Sequence to fold (406 residues):
Amino acid sequence: MVTCDPSRVRVTGPLACYADGFRAALGARGYSPWSQMFHLHLMAHVSRWLGEHGLDASGLTDTAAAAFVRDRRDSGRARFRGVQGLAPLLGFLRDAGAAPLPAAAEPDDEAGRLAAEFAGYLAGERGLRPQTVACYARFAWRFLDSLPAAGGGDVLAGLTADAVRSFVIAESGRRGTGSLKNAVTAVRSLLRFLHLRGLIPASLDGAAPAAAGWHRPPLTRRLRAGDVAAVLASCDRATHAGRRDYAILMLLARLGLRAGEAAAVRAGDIDWRAGEILVRGKGGRNELLPLPSDVGTAIAEYCRYARPRDAASGMLFLHARAPYGPVTPSAVGYVVARACCRAGLDPASAHQLRHAAATSMRRAGAPLSEISQLLRHRHESTTARYGTIDPEELGIVAHPWPEAAS
Fold:
């Protein structure tokens, strides 16, 4: 029988002094003994490669890592043939101060530099979430890069009201309504930023036309109460991943959390004695919500029986496999989509569960103000979009067609 003992992997060369620490770090992050052995063998290979090239740990730059991967691929190695396979080793060495941090990518053009400054403004002064900052900065770069070229490298020399309108019209031909609205918002915010910094004489944010469209989701895509129950019942709560998915789905279906809000919940955000949960919402708004007993039970069972006890992350929901990092908003969306498939439904989004929570409250007779408070909307007009009537409900109030013919 082949024994699996990571301590038997021998690492020689400049990385030998870090082998024990790397082995302990892999174990703390939940890697199985077999996975630890693979990563330690990779570390031994990297260490030998560094020694052959006269380098130590400080020479393991991004360029050196890419060169190692090319040499390994050329030698016919079947495993860890990409730079991503080095991520655990590079992360450990960088945290230990042995390997240099990755070089920050500097924008190589004026449009990229302005977009980077705009991103810093959104994150530092406006306090937007990283996902929103990245989205707006991407649109800002596309807009600046689309401006007519001018002499002297001044990208803003071609910034006119006509250029703003032309960009929005061009984007409208390749984007849906929601994506186009984000693009318009980003461009308007960029124009205000440029005026605030004194880079343009007047703010041209009014030149960006509004994105036309009606924000009303198709009624056929609505998740009804039976669908939500089937989605929750599809989770195999005998497994670690099933307990985690069930707790996430309960937060989405009962409290109407967004995908990003569910992913952002920390283990310390729940006050078990008071029965409250802190929700980190949009725009940096943190609000306390009452924690229903069934949702609290689902989270407690996940924490007691499924959440890794030795996880270093303070986030509540973690990946079910090593490394036990926090889930992302995209991962929350995949949880919902997989649960719908298991329940025999068409894939749905996390936001549709938020709509289902609002619809359930409306059917129970809750006023619009209470639904708006749960969903944490600033304006009740936003909440009203969540209250479109189901065609089945219209049948209750519709009068039958008179049988007597005229």
About this structure: The longest strand covers residues 276-280.
